[in-house]
Write a structure and sequence with these properties.
Structural class: mainly alpha
Oligomer: single chain
Number of helices: 1
Largest sheet: none
Shape: rod-shaped
Mean pLDDT: 78
Low-confidence stretches: none
Helix content: 55-70%
Number of strands: 0
Radius of gyration: 22 Å
Length: 56
């Protein structure tokens, strides 16, 4: 009984980790797209040159 529960627990942990990693990959892709769009759509600074779109 205990080995069966351990195997089921391991399967549940691995399934949860796989799902979480897949979600993290999608979040990383969305952040990358927003970051790249920030370079394309930058506000103009004084003097007509392109300014920074981030604060740091």
């Amino acid at each position: 009984m205990v080995p069966t529960l351990l195997v089921l627990l391991l399967a549940l942990i691995l399934f949860g980790a796989g799902f979480a990693l897949k979600v993290l990959w999608w979040i990383a892709v969305v952040v990358l797209v927003v970051w790249l769009l920030g370079f394309v759509v930058r506000p103009t600074a004084t003097g007509g040159r392109r300014g920074r779109w981030y604060r740091w």
